Amino acid sequence: MLSSAAMSPRRAAPTRGATRRGAAATITMRDRSKNRKPTQRGRYLSTEAIQAVQSLKRAALRGAPAASAAAAVEPKLRRLLKADMVAVFRELAAQGEALLALQVFEEIRKEHWYKPRLLWYVDLITVLASKGLRSDVDRACSYLKREQLEPDTDGFNLLLKALLDAEFAQLAMDCFRLMKLWDSDPDRITYRTLIKGLESLGKVGLSADVRLEAENDYGSLDFLDEEEIDKT
After folding, report:
1. Which run of H or of E encompasses 100?
2. What is the model's pTM?
3. For residue 54, what pLDDT band results from cuts at 50, 70 and 90?
């Protein structure tokens, strides 16, 4: 007598192709890009960029002369990708490392891919001015005057505010003239920043000149009493 096991129909083993098809139906793919932190204006730091920042800061802490510190770090900077080099510069500026930021910025200007951006100058001049480094602010502004930039009224407004906050009235006026030279049309924020900033520094004559220009552009100066709205 045949056993019940022998009489029961055998189930065919699934073929390899069927197994794969079944497995494929349950596999889900994750988008790895979702795990990456977004790049924020050139300040996302790669491992190489972090190491460069640390090396620069260590050299500064050792009290190494600027020339020797630059010679020690320059090879590392040169090996960085464009985005990393810019990120190092902006990170140093954000950390208040004014002279190191200037050093890296000067290396960036030597690169073949360098294309000037006004916001880089805003970062640099803001941190230099906040430390009261007048000669270095003059140096950065001298670089700016030799560039050819696209019109950027908002960028110039930030630059004017940084200079006036640091009480660099004449440099602010120089940048105002440069702004108009590059077809960045002054807006109400420009005039309000300049006029109020100059008056707070006691530069009545300069303020009066800017008032005349504002009247020529806008007629009424009622906007000077408006509250400034923070766009950020």
Report:
1. helix 98-110
2. 0.72
3. confident
